[in-house]
Amino acid sequence: MGIGEVAALLGVGMAAGTINTVVGSGTLVTFPTLLAFGYTPVVANVTNTVGLVPGSLSGIHGYRAEIAEFRALGGRRLTRLVLASMLGAALGALLLFLLPAKAFKAIVPALIALALVLIIVQPRLAKRIAARRAARESATVADGAAQGWGVLLAVFGSGMYGGYFGAAQGVLLMAILGLTYSDRLQVLNGVKNVLACVVNAIAAVVFIAVGALGLGGSQHPSVRWGAALAIAVGALVGGQIGASVGRRLPPKVLRGLIVVVGLVAIGSMVL
After folding, report:
1. Hey, is 243 helix, strand or coil?
2. What is the spatial distance between Cα 168 and Cα 116, in angstroms, rounded to a whole number?
3. Are 263 and 44 a contacting pair, CB within 8 Å?
4. CB atoms within 10 A of CB 68
5. What is the mean pLDDT of the chain?
6. Is residue 141 predicted with pLDDT exceeding 60?
7. 74 φ/ψ sector (left φ>0, alpha ψ -120 to 50, else beta)
8. Are 29 and 12 in contact (CB under 8 A)?
9. What stretch of H or E contains 134?
10. Which residues have C-beta within 8 Å of that of residue 173, sequence separation ≥ 6?
11. SS3 for 54?
12. What's the pTM value of the predicted model, to 2 decimals?
């Protein structure tokens, strides 16, 4: 790795850490950058996932008060959501190695496109969530319904998606949490950071183990640790920025940047 590559990965890692804490789409910045430096899609994916874990932990630390508030209103809620995320992430990460590498390269442009759609419709989705929250008669009714299998299955599905690729899983999680829980949105954003971190961490463990044991074969090479470390250092700083300054970033500017980078990523994979 040259100095230029290290500097670029530090920069995009910081950006991704900030974006993940605030919105949840940092992969749409780091993944295309890794592709631009010549990494294959699968190598870029596993390296990116490992590199973003420290940033997720940093974001959790920044939202620790909101997470404590969520737990105070029912500790088992978070435990159940975490378990569902863990199971989904493990399955999604395993699918990355069970399916042919060619399948990943064919599927990812569609997943990026889906992520971009989610980013674009996020404001409208947020308004609908707010309207539904305002229409609820009481927090007790809302949270009672949220303990059912529906929300756990939805979080499991989001975890599986995140374990396989992960772009915009934060948007999915905010939609799920916002439609089922009556807590403040900043509290739910903190919970989103916990679940996204769990997904990234479980997927990273699977990727590292498969690479170390040589179970992935030649089609699925292991993590590129130099690149992962550069992203990790940047993401660690970005997580703190997202938890403090990032909340005040203009949403339209952030969303527009993510869409542009995502379109570039699609172009680099299909052309």
Report:
1. helix
2. 8
3. no
4. 11
5. 82
6. no
7. left
8. yes
9. helix 101-135
10. 24, 155, 158, 191, 192, 195, 196
11. helix
12. 0.81
